[in-house]
Specification:
The complex is a heterodimer of chains A (about 250) and B (about 210). Chain A is mainly alpha-helical. Helix content of chain A is about 65%, strand content about 0%. Classes of the chains: A mainly alpha (about 250), B mainly alpha (about 210). Chains A and B meet through helix 1 and helix 2 of A and helix 1, helix 2, helix 3, helix 6 and helix 7 of B.
Chain lengths: ~250, ~210
C-alpha cells in the first residue's frame, strides 16, 4: 500500500495515518450496538415476505442448473419409465392392459431385426408366444381371442418359412423343423380352439393344422379375412403340391 | 470451524434477512466504518452512532443492493459517506476544522518521526480535516481501511484514475500541513524540522 507512493514524505505520512487508524481503540459500545442491530434484523426478517426456509444454496443451484441438463434429466426419466413399462409388458397376456404395449414392442423389435436367420428366429419366437397366449386363452375360456391368436401364429410361421427359403435349402428345412415343433407343442389347444371358432370363420384353419407345411405358397398366406374363392382366384387357396420334404414339387 | 469469508454468499444470505449474515457483516465492517466516521468527526461517540446508523440503513435497503462481485463492503462504506455527509448537512457545521497551533507549527527541535509519533489521533484528524471531503475519503479508505484504488473508486463512485489524482492532491496538501516539501525537507520559515530530517526521509521509518 505504501510502496505505491513515490515520495518518501508521502510514505511517512501515509504510514502515520495507517498507524493512527489502527491505534484507535475499539468501540466500547460495539457489543450493545451489535445486539440492537441483530434485533432490528430479526424484526425486519419477520416483516419480510421472503421465506427464511428457502435455502439460498438450493435456490442458486436450481438457477444455475442449465436448462439443457434439466431437459436431459427429464428425457432420461421418461426413457427409464418407457423401458420399465416395455419390460413388464413382455409378460402380459391377452386381456391385460399392458398387452397392447407388448404387441407394439414386439412389432418394433421385428422391424429392427435384420433379415436372415435372426428374422426367422424372431418370427418363430413370435408364433410360439401367440400359441402360449392361446393356451392361456383356452384355459380361461377367452373365446374371442382364439381366432386372432391362431391367425397371428400362422402368419408368423409362414413368414418365418418364407424368410428361411431365401437363405437356402438348409435354412428352410431348419425353419420348418422349428415351426413344426412349436405347433406340435401346442397342437391340443389349437385344435380345441378351432373347434370353438364358428365354422363360417374357420376358413382353412383345420386343413392348415393337419398339414401346416402345405398351407403356404411362395407368399405368406395371411389374408385370413378373405373368402376362400378369392384365394382360389390368385392361386393361393388351393395348395400347390409339395414334396415330402415340404419344398415345392416343381423346383 | 470458522466459515471462509465469501462476500457474494454473505450478501446473498443477507438479502434474505439471514441473521448470521448480518452478524458477519457487522463483525467485519463495524470497526472500519467507525474509524472512517471518526476521521471525519473526531468524536468517538459520534463515530459509534454513525456506524450504528450505517448498519440500520443497510438493513433497510438491503433489497436494493445489487452485488457486482463482492461489493457489499464498498456498498456499506458508500452508506457511511452519506451518513457522514448528512450529519454535517444537518448540523450546519463546516466540515473542516483548523489545525491546532501545535500541529501547524511543528516542534522546533524534534525529528520528523518524533513529530508524527507524538501526534494524537485527534491531531491527525485535524490534519485530515483540512482536506476536501473527497480527498479525505480517499486517504482514509486507502491508508486506514486498506482499500486499493479500484475498491476506493467503487465506494466514492469515481474512476480509478480520478482516485489516484485525488490521492496525489491530498498528499501534497498533507505535506504542506506537516510543513514538508516534495523532497521531504521542511518548508517552515523557522527551519524547525530542517535540521532534524535525515537526508533520505524514506529511511526514517523502517519498513516504510
Amino acid at each position: 500500500m505504501f510502496d505505491e507512493l513515490d515520495s518518501p514524505p508521502d510514505r511517512l505520512i501515509a504510514r502515520r495515518i495507517y498507524e493512527s487508524g489502527r491505534s484507535l481503540e475499539h468501540s466500547g459500545r460495539a457489543g450493545s450496538i451489535r445486539e440492537e442491530f441483530l434485533l432490528e434484523v430479526a424484526v425486519a426478517r419477520n416483516e419480510s415476505i421472503v421465506p427464511d426456509t428457502v435455502p439460498v444454496r438450493s435456490a442458486s443451484w436450481r438457477k444455475a442448473l442449465p436448462v439443457l441438463a434439466r431437459a436431459a434429466t427429464a428425457t432420461a426419466l421418461v426413457m427409464v419409465l418407457l423401458f420399465s413399462v416395455g419390460l413388464v409388458s413382455t409378460r402380459a397376456m391377452p386381456g391385460s392392459p399392458l398387452y397392447p404395449v407388448k404387441r407394439v414392442v414386439e412389432k418394433a423389435g421385428l422391424y429392427m431385426t435384420p433379415s436372415g436367420s435372426a428374422a426367422v428366429d424372431a418370427r418363430v419366437t413370435r408364433a410360439s408366444e401367440r400359441l402360449e397366449e392361446l393356451d392361456y386363452a383356452t384355459r380361461n375360456s377367452m373365446r374371442d381371442w382364439y381366432l386372432p391368436l391362431i391367425q397371428e401364429a400362422r402368419s408368423n410361421i409362414e413368414e418365418a418359412t418364407l424368410e428361411a427359403s431365401r437363405g437356402g435349402v438348409e435354412e428352410e428345412e431348419k425353419a420348418r423343423e422349428e415351426t413344426r415343433s412349436v405347433l406340435e407343442e401346442h397342437d391340443e389347444e389349437i385344435r380345441e380352439a378351432i373347434e370353438e371358432v364358428p365354422s363360417d370363420e374357420r376358413g382353412d384353419l383345420e386343413e392348415w393344422v393337419e398339414d401346416p407345411g402345405d398351407s403356404s405358397d411362395d407368399e405368406p398366406e395371411v389374408k385370413e379375412d378373405r373368402e376362400p374363392d378369392e384365394r382360389e382366384e390368385d392361386g393361393g387357396g388351393e395348395h400347390a403340391p409339395r414334396r415330402e420334404d415340404g419344398r415345392d414339387s416343381d423346383d | 470451524m470458522e466459515r471462509e469469508w465469501d462476500p457474494v454468499e454473505v450478501a446473498s444470505r443477507a438479502a434474505r434477512y439471514d441473521r448470521e449474515a448480518f452478524a458477519e457483516l457487522f463483525d467485519r465492517f463495524f470497526e472500519g466504518i467507525r474509524r472512517y466516521a471518526y476521521f471525519h468527526t473526531g468524536d468517538e461517540d459520534l463515530a459509534d452512532d454513525m456506524a450504528a446508523e450505517v448498519f440500520s440503513q443497510a438493513l433497510a435497503s438491503i433489497e436494493n443492493f445489487t452485488d457486482r462481485g463482492g461489493t457489499i463492503g464498498a456498498w456499506l462504506y458508500g452508506i457511511a459517506r452519506n451518513v457522514v455527509a448528512g450529519h454535517f448537512r444537518k448540523s450546519g457545521r463546516v466540515h473542516e476544522v483548523g489545525l491546532s497551533d501545535e500541529l501547524a507549527e511543528p516542534e522546533e527541535h524534534g525529528p520528523v518521526q518524533t513529530v508524527f509519533e507524538e501526534m494524537s489521533n485527534l491531531e491527525l484528524y485535524e490534519a485530515l480535516s483540512t482536506l476536501p471531503d473527497m480527498q479525505r475519503d480517499v486517504v482514509v479508505l486507502r491508508f486506514i481501511e486498506g482499500y486499493d484504488v479500484d475498491g476506493v473508486a467503487r465506494i466514492v463512485g469515481k474512476r480509478p484514475g480520478a482516485v489516484r489524482a485525488l490521492q496525489h492532491r491530498a498528499m501534497i496538501s498533507l505535506r504542506k500541513v506537516f510543513g514538508l516539501g516534495p523532497d521531504g525537507k521542511p518548508r517552515t520559515a523557522s527551519g524547525g524540522l530542517e535540521r532534524m530530517l535525515p537526508e533520505e526521509a524514506g529511511g526514517v521509518v523502517p519498513g516504510v
